Amino acid sequence: MRRIKITLCYDGTDFHGWQIQPGVPTIQGTLERVLHQIEGAPVAVTGSGRTDAGAHALAQVAAFTLRNPIPTENLKRAMNRLLPPSIRVLAVEEAPPEFHPIRHALAKTYEYRIWRGEICPPFKRRYVHHYPYPLDTARMQAAAPLLEGEHDFTAFAASDKSDALGLSKVRTIYLSRFLAEPERLIYRVRGNGFLKHMVRNLVGTLLEVGKGNIDEARLRWLLEAPSGVKAGPTAPACGLFLVGVEY
C-alpha cells in the first residue's frame, strides 16, 4: 500500500464545502469518486481541514492510500483528466505511511479578500466580499495584530458537532494583518489551527471595528469572553481562501 499526499486548488463556489454530505457536491466526495475510478475500489481521502461551503483553496493538502502502482506524475494527470475544471491537482508525492494531513500540520495560512470599489467586476464577484460602504481601514489595520498570540477563540467559533467532546478552543495566531489596496482589502492570518468559521468570524468582527461598532478594548475582551458570548457577524464564504499548509 502507498500513502499519497496531494496539493490541490479549487473554486469552492459550486461545492458544499470539503466534507462529504449526502446528495450535494463536495470537494472530498468529488476526489473520492475520481480515485475510485482509478483504484477500482473505494478510496478514503483526508484533507488538512474542512473548508466552508463556497470557500476556495490555493493549496489545500490531502492524503489517501492506494494499491495502484501508477507513478505519481501519471496519477496527477489522471486525476486532473477526471476532475471537474474547478478542482486541479497541483502536485502528487509519495508520503510516509503514517502521514496525516491534519495531525502533522504545523501551520495554515488563510486570506480573506474584500472588494471596496463601488462596482464589483462580474469576474471577481465569486472570489471577494463586496463591501463598498464606509470603513475606517486604519482602525482595522491597527486592531488585526491584537488577535496574534495564544487565545481561547470560543467567541469566534461556530457551533460544531465536536463541541460535545469538550475539546480546547485555544489556538495560536502567528500573524494577523490587513493589506490595503486601492479597491481591495486583504486580511491574511496564519496560525497553528482554526475552528469552524473562525476566520470568517474574525473578519466579520474586524469589519465591525472598521464601522466603529467595536473598539480595541471590546476586541480584547472577546478573546477572554465567558462562554456563550459571540463575536461579530460571520463574513460571507466567497472571500475566503486557504493559501497553504505547512508541515
Percent of residues in β-strands = 25-35%
Low-pLDDT residue intervals, each spanning 5 or more residues: none
Major sheet description = 10 strands, mixed
Q: What is the number of beta strands?
A: 10
Keywords:
10-stranded mixed β-sheet, alpha+beta, Alpha-Beta Plaits, 21% helix, 2 domains, single chain, 5 helices
Topology at a glance:
Blueprint: E1 2-10, H1 27-39, E2 46-47, E3 56-66, H2 72-82, E4 87-95, E5 107-115, E6 129-130, H3 137-143, E7 149-152, E8 170-180, E9 184-191, H4 198-211, H5 216-222, E10 240-246
Parallel strand pairs: 3-10, 5-6
Antiparallel strand pairs: 1-3, 1-4, 2-3, 5-9, 5-10, 7-8, 8-9
Helix pairs in contact: 1-2, 3-4
Task: Characterize this entry briefly.
The protein is α+β, with helices and mostly antiparallel strands.
Structure description:
- With 247 residues, the protein is of the alpha+beta class.
- It folds into 2 domains: 94 residues, Alpha-Beta Plaits; 140 residues, Alpha-Beta Plaits.
- Helix content is 21%, strand content 29%.
- It has 5 helices and 10 strands, in the order E-H-E-E-H-E-E-E-H-E-E-E-H-H-E.
- Helix 1 packs across helix 2.
- The model has no long low-confidence stretch (mean pLDDT 95).
